[in-house]
């Protein structure tokens, strides 16, 4: 499985976001297992029709103002968050300093835990 983290650093306009958006196309095709996992998560979130399969690796880019529930999942009608929706693909956190130091550390720690647990129990 693809379990790597990347950090793009550079001045505004240098192509960091464009490069990140291209990552899913550079990764190997989804395996049968990854295809089923990804499609199940997206189906639960209501992003694909029941029974359909998504063949593309996910690319998720939540806004820095996204709530913890939006990033990690949950809410009144529990739905997968951005971390789960990016499973087997790319979770792009653009302009990380905009999150604020404490919030960024909290987000990253929780996202790491959620991603680790998701991989562990799926």
Automatic annotation (TrEMBL):
Recorded GO molecular functions are: ATP binding
PANTHER family referenced in this protein's UniProt entry, alphabetically: COMPETENCE PROTEIN COMM, MAGNESIUM-CHELATASE SUBUNIT CHLI
Which protein is depicted?
Magnesium chelatase ChlI-like catalytic domain-containing protein
* Highest rank taxon of the organism: Bacteria
Q: Where are the transmembrane segments?
A: none
Organism taxonomic ancestry = Bacteria, Pseudomonadati, Pseudomonadota, Alphaproteobacteria, Caulobacterales
InterPro entries attached here? CHLI-like, Mg_chelatse_chII-like_cat_dom, P-loop_NTPase
The record places domain Magnesium chelatase ChlI-like catalytic at 6-101
Write down the Pfam families for this protein, in alphabetical order: Mg_chelatase (PF01078)
């Amino acid at each position: 499985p693809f379990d790597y983290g990347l950090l793009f650093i550079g001045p505004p306009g240098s192509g960091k976001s464009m490069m990140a958006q291209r990552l899913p196309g550079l990764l190997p095709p989804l395996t049968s297992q990854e295809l089923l996992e990804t499609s199940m998560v997206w189906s639960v979130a209501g992003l694909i029709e029941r029974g359909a399969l998504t063949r593309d690796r996910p690319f998720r880019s939540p806004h820095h103002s996204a709530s913890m529930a939006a990033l990690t999942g949950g809410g009144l009608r529990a739905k997968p968050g951005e971390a789960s929706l990016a499973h087997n693909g790319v979770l792009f956190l653009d302009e990380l300093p905009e999150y604020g130091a404490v919030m960024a550390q909290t987000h990253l720690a929780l996202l790491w835990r959620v991603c680790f647990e998701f991989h562990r129990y799926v």
